[in-house]
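User: hey, got a sec? need Centromere protein M folded
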Amino acid sequence: HIATSLPLPSERDHFRPRIDLIVFMIDIKSKYSLKNVEASLAHVDASFFLGKVCFLVTGVGRVNACSIETNAVCKLGEAYCSPVLFCELELEGIRVATAQRLLRMLQICAGHIPGVSALSFVSLMRTFDDD
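Assistant: Yep! Here you go:
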């Protein structure tokens, strides 16, 4: 399911399936995209940030067209303890690899991979530059 922003409309709550993973898409060429994601974050329950949220940054192949610094997005990922994935949707190989990575993350978050929880998966993806 795709939403352009949060909160989701409440009139269809009883039809909505369980949410296993939230992927916030940020177009690096649009400051509005980052502002929309930042505004939407306030509507996500804190428990989702324990392995069920990630940030997907698109448009990274065009450095000269960037309106957002990648450092700002990385700080957002750090602040919410959530992984940040960078991709260029115009390149098929990267698009396919990113889709496969997101699908694997979804399988883990939904509990379909025995022995791996969403929380343990995210802890494996963290970098430990602060040490």
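Quick note: Residues 22-127 form a domain with the Rossmann fold fold (CATH 3.40.50.300). Let me know if you need anything else on Centromere protein M.
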